[in-house]
Write a structure and sequence with these properties.
3-stranded antiparallel beta sheet; alpha+beta; globular; Glutaredoxin
């Protein structure tokens, strides 16, 4: 497994990411994640729509909570051609609890806790703490990455505007 250092820090301390990572124009792997009802969900089931994949370390942190709420609000305004998928290593039970407490029962939260295959495939699995690095991927309707951002400081928010702008361009 390839290890990459220097892309992400937590409170200024470098973290090691596992996987080669994906870049713009790469086709996304068809990872299997777990939904809040414990059913397997493959990313391919969202093909045909623009996907905004918001990756967070844990929904139970302030920045992840804010990121998920903000993307839910902003992506829902883009219409039915765009879907927001929030991915974390949180257990599906915790994701379901968060969605209920946040008043977002229809939010799509998927867990990578079983295998970490999403994190490794996308290159955002943090080696030592087995959480996902904060990142955003915008994927076109054919499954190719149109925008990617791995946030350099784990405790910072992503660039919402750039990701949303790319999603808007893809639905025109």
């Amino acid at each position: 497994m390839k290890e990459r250092m220097g892309l992400v820090k937590r409170n200024g301390q470098p973290l090691i990411l596992l996987g080669t990572g994906l870049k713009t124009a790469d086709k996304i792997p068809d990872c299997e994640l777990t939904a809040t009802d414990l059913q397997p969900v493959k990313l391919s089931c969202f093909r045909g729509k623009v996907m905004v994949i918001s990756v967070v370390p844990s929904l139970d942190t302030a920045v992840c909570d804010k990121q998920t709420r903000k993307f839910n609000e902003r992506v829902s305004a883009l219409g039915e051609k765009v879907v927001l998928i929030t991915v974390s290593m949180d257990l599906p039970f915790a994701q379901k609890r968060w969605c209920g407490a946040a008043g977002l029962p229809n939010a799509i939260t998927l867990s990578d806790h079983r295998s970490g295959a999403f994190g490794e495939s996308f290159g955002v699995l943090i080696k030592d703490i087995r959480l996902l690095a904060r990142a955003v991927f915008v994927v076109d309707a054919h499954g190719k990455i149109a925008y990617e951002q791995i946030v350099p400081e784990l405790t910072d928010e992503p660039d919402y505007e750039s990701a949303l702008q790319k999603a808007k361009q893809l639905i025109k």
